[in-house]
Amino acid sequence: MDITFLRVASTLVSFATFLGILAWVYLRRDQRDFEEAAQLPFEQD
């Protein structure tokens, strides 16, 4: 096992994680939670 294999493996794991996060965000049925979280910086105390 050389450094090239480790680089390729880490790239593939990172890409799979990225795709998993995208699927979790875009395929989620309840968008209300994300919309509320998006408005948090604009709310005043």
Secondary-structure map:
Layout: H1 3-26, H2 32-39
Structure commentary:
Keywords: Membrane, Transmembrane, Transmembrane helix. This is Cbb3-type cytochrome C oxidase subunit 3. The chain is mainly α. It has a domain at 17-45. It contains two helices and no strands. It has helices at 3-26, 32-39. The longest helix has 24 residues, at 3-26. The radius of gyration is 17 Å and the shape is elongated.
The H-and-E topology, N to C, reads as HH
% residues in beta strands: under 5%
What spatial form do the alpha-carbon principal axes imply? elongated
Poorly predicted residue ranges? none
Mean pLDDT: 89
Q: What gyration radius follows from the Cα positions, in whole Å?
A: 17 Å
Number of strands: 0
Helix content: over 70%
Task: Give the biggest sheet.
Answer: none
Structural class designation: mainly alpha
Question: Oligomerization state of this entry?
Answer: single chain
Number of helices: 2
Distance between the termini: 55 Å
Short note summarizing the structure:
The protein contains two helices and no strands. The chain is mainly alpha-helical and 45 residues long. The chain has a domain at 17-45.
List its salient traits.
mainly alpha; Cbb3-type cytochrome C oxidase subunit 3; 71% helix; elongated; membrane; Cbb3-typ_cyt_oxidase_comp; 45 residues; transmembrane helix; single chain
